[in-house]
Amino acid sequence: MRSIIIAFPDAAIVQKIKEIMLAHNFPVRGQATNASMALRLISPDDGGGLIICSARFPDMAAIHMLSLLPDDYDMLVLSSAENIDFTFGQQEGLYTLSLPLHTQDLISSVRMLLDTRQMYNDISRSVKTKLKTVKEDPVPAKRNMEEQRIIDQAKALLMNRNNMSEQEAHRFLQKKSMDTGSKLVDMANAVLNSQEN
User: Fold this and answer.
1) What integer pLDDT is reported at residue 101 of this predicted model?
2) Given its phi and psi angles, is residue 15 left (phi above 0), alpha (psi -120 to 50 degrees) or beta?
3) Which segments of the chain have a pLDDT < 70?
4) Domain 145-196 part of CATH 3.40.50.1970
């Protein structure tokens, strides 16, 4: 079952939303007061979930945090209308609710996001299982030392420039390479080249 992570700079808001979620029997995985802390609560094999959060944190904006999330996570941003950037609505996996809001609006939105994604995951898993029985996936090629060096350099650059952990930098490169359909090493090269320009 998908779970919820609650992340707001104000610990009192985190606690209030957690109480609402628990009162309506939603599984709360964890809580955080900054984006980095929320990202550390994610495990690659936890089945995905929903992050309910603020539009901005002291360490990064929610839109940047979205780019670091695994594909099986969605984000629900609660913020006043003037703090929600117009690009929020154009990002896959990102949903917004304007403040102030009624508790029932929050509950309905969370239920819809959890249920819809769970159905999609179940269907997707079923299709993948059927395809795998028809033809086994080929074993991915191993990286050579030069490719690994390029990836490590790009991660180091992201860690220094964006205050990311190594895991966050790796996740960022993975997500960007999947989104563009390119190899991880090609995305690492692009990051390194953007620094030089």
Assistant:
1) 82
2) alpha
3) 1, 81-91, 116-143, 195-197
4) no
